[in-house]
Amino acid sequence: MTLLDDPHDDTDAALDRAFLALADPVRRSIVATLSRGPATVNELAAPFPITKQAVSRHIQVLETAGLITRTRDGQRRPCHLDPAALERLTAWIDEYRLTAERQYRRLDALLGRLQATSSDPSKEQS
After folding, report:
1. Where are the beta strands (DSSP E) in the chain?
2. Is residue 124 a part of any domain in this protein?
3. C-alpha angle 101/106/110, rounded to 5°?
4. What is the pLDDT of residues 30-70, one digit of tens each?
5. d(CA 2, CA 6)
6. Residue 20 falls within a domain, yes or no?
7. Within a domain: 125
8. Is the overall model pTM greater than 0.85, yes or no?
9. Are 20 and 66 in contact (CB under 8 A)?
10. CATH code of 38's domain
11. What percentage of the chain exceeds 90 in pLDDT?
């Protein structure tokens, strides 16, 4: 269970943690890498000019936000992206995107009617 689906956790706080975690370019890069499959801290740290400890802190932020998990595989502790957590974020964004799209469609329809009325005086209503 992640922080985003913990019934005792405030949804707004969980969203804040997730979006704050994704606000950092290093963490977004880590998420992008994990979207291709599990990776260890060493593998995730390789492309960055920062210490493994710094990458570990970034991973901890992502883990606290509920975006990634870690498992134990012998000596390895691979990190895994939690696609369900990203899906919940996408669903939250889509809710507002769909509302905005509906409003724009209504506005387009109204503007279309106004334009048709102004270009054809016979369609004016009194």
Report:
1. 68-70, 79-81
2. no
3. 145
4. 999 999 999 999 999 999 999 999 999 999 999 999 999 99
5. 6
6. yes
7. no
8. no
9. no
10. 1.10.10.10
11. 67
